[in-house]
Amino acid sequence: NVLYAGFKNPISVSVPGVPASSIQISPSNCKSSAKTGTGWTIVPSVVGTPCNISVSAVVDGKTQHIATKTFRVKKLPDPLGMVEYTNAQGIKCRYRGYSFDKAIDKSRLVTCRQIVAELNDSDLDVKYKVLEFALNYFDSMGNTMIEKTTGNKLNDKQLKIFREMTNRKSVFVNNIVALGQDGMKRNLPPLEVKIK
To answer: What is the C-alpha to C-alpha distance for residues 26 and 113, in angstroms, rounded to an integer?
Structure first.
């Protein structure tokens, strides 16, 4: 019984023997609500404050209160930054970094053109937009180098860094900032890119 603040949460409401057109809801702690073809969408306002949804129905011409259901309101979960690449079949895939997926084939890595942010193993259909990120790598002298960019696309220097990676060397994608559908910016954890 959880809703997410700032996000259009789909809910379904039914009352036995009453058509959907005769059912109404009245939610508390709610920025907006809208009827859809399959139910309603609820956008709660404040994290930590319950959203009480009161259900009423018109029966024999009179409006009757049917029930009230309480939902916890939570912040949308943070996504993971991921490297998007194209496999041999031309399908866009995600590499979540060495800690999740181990090393990646260089042939796949060089097809990467952007960094994306997505929830890991979640049924929630939430979109996140990467606003900026950086690549941290080591030059031939062992010095730490940083190449930053705005947006989610790799710039020419970052593409070159991936192309010139060698076995057992790591590049870190960090300083990833993503914007959620709830309007909140998030600083995401770094991911380590390592090729086989």
So the answer is: 46
